[in-house]
Amino acid sequence: MKSKIIRYIIYSFFVMILFLTSSLWSDSFTTSPQVACGYSHTVALKRDGTVWTWGYNNYGQLGDGSNNSSSIPIHVKNLTEIVAIAAGGEHSIAIKRDGTVWTWGNGESGQLGNRTDRSSKIPINVEGLTDIIAVAGGYYHTVALKRDGTVWTWGNGEVGQLGNGLDRSSKIPINVEGLTDIIAVAAGAWHTVALKKDGTVWTFGSNRYGQLGDGTKVRKNTPTQVKYLTDIVGIACGFFHTVVLKKDGTVWTWGANNRGQLGCGDSTERTVPVKAKGLTNIISIAAGGVQTIALKKNGTVYYCGPSNTGLWGENFYLRPVQIKTLTDIILISEGGGHTVALKRDGTVWTWGSGGSGQLGRTVDKTSLTRPAPIKNFNLMEVIMEKPEEIRTNSELDRKDIP
């Protein structure tokens, strides 16, 4: 009888342990992995809501408290439960689960939204901004989308990219009046793009190369609709060009085209949308400095722009070509001259300019003309170490990747 009681107690104990363990895992936070590229740095979001960065760090855009650049992914400490990320020219942006926004890096134009023009080497909260569901970074300005469909901007506004009716900068978020029912935002170097729920596209800011798509080269400091463009489901911005994705899977582009980034078969800039040649069944788009990339439904990737920032040869690809070594891709992002792609298995592949470590390839900072994976780094992983065991930039002399 006594032995039965003891066995029952032991059994009950293990059942309790299993229940507690199950509860712990069911309550653990997970999110969709993401990648984002700045001019010369890269930001990645793991499934567990942690943020990792690598590349140039002159303004603290890696968020590790230093100005030391890194050629391997480093963990941004004290930043948890992140659901979305973005990167500007030299700053980084993250949205927490609670809808708050956190920024770090270059703040000289007020793009951190911290009421000053000071840069920050660690993430800081953008005060007064809540219920945010999406963010985008221009070179010197930042854009945020609220759940209610309104758009908020801050940073450099000298050419109208804040959309506030003035060619004036702001160190705090300001509402873009007249923009409602917005479902996506994007930012170029000096212009901003917003997508409405009805599938129309609205632009403001610099228009030197026709990147606003309104048929002129006159800059605008209030939102202007891109006419005759409907059924849009995705938007992206390069430095001086704009890319949109239609519901039917086709891609349309406009703006600067000196490197063939519009994918229309020539190098002539456009002030109105033109259809990119040969692209069908596209589900996602991204744009960088002078390049454009598109992801097909079957997981293959197509690229147009300079051949020396990610593909073979010495010329430009004036129309999209397939990157044949890439398959099973689910996410893409473009930087100033580098590209990042996320595979379904969680591995991260990079190529293009690598002189600042933005490709994440250990001590090797050379550029790559073919995609290559970042070794021992997977965005599907969940960190199990104690906080004090998480490696930081101070350990960069080690050649393996955290």
Structure description:
This protein is mainly β. It has one domain: Regulator of chromosome condensation 1/beta-lactamase-inhibitor protein II (Methylamine Dehydrogenase, Chain H), CATH 2.130.10. About 5% of the residues lie in helices and about 40% in strands. The chain has one helix and 28 strands. The strands form seven sheets. The chain has a four-stranded antiparallel beta sheet, with no helix packed on it. Strands 5-6-7-8 form a four-stranded antiparallel beta sheet, with no helix packed on it. A four-stranded antiparallel beta sheet has the order 9-10-11-12, with no helix packed on it. The chain is globular, with a radius of gyration of 22 Å. Residues about 10-25 and about 385-400 have low confidence and may be disordered.
Overall body shape? globular
Report the biggest beta sheet as strand number plus sense, adding barrel if it closes: 4 strands, antiparallel
CATH topology: Methylamine Dehydrogenase, Chain H
Secondary-structure-derived class: mainly beta
Number of strands: 28
CATH superfamily: Regulator of chromosome condensation 1/beta-lactamase-inhibitor protein II
Order of helices and strands: HEEEEEEEEEEEEEEEEEEEEEEEEEEEE
Average pLDDT figure: 89
Strand order of the largest sheet: 1-2-3-4
- First-residue to last-residue Cα separation: 53 Å
**Rg from alpha-carbon coordinates:** 22 Å
Percent of residues in beta strands?
35-45%
Which stretches are low in confidence, meaning pLDDT under 50 for 5 or more residues running? 8-26, 384-402
**CATH C-level category:** Mainly Beta
Query: CATH architecture, please?
Result: 7 Propeller
Number of domains: 1
Helix content: under 10%
> How would you describe the oligomerization state of the chains in this entry?
single chain
InterPro entries: RCC1-like_dom (IPR058923), RCC1/BLIP-II (IPR009091), Reg_chr_condens (IPR000408), Signaling_Regulatory_Domain (IPR051625)
Pfam family, one: WD40_RLD
Protein name: Regulator of chromosome condensation (RCC1) repeat protein
Keywords: Membrane, Repeat, Transmembrane, Transmembrane helix
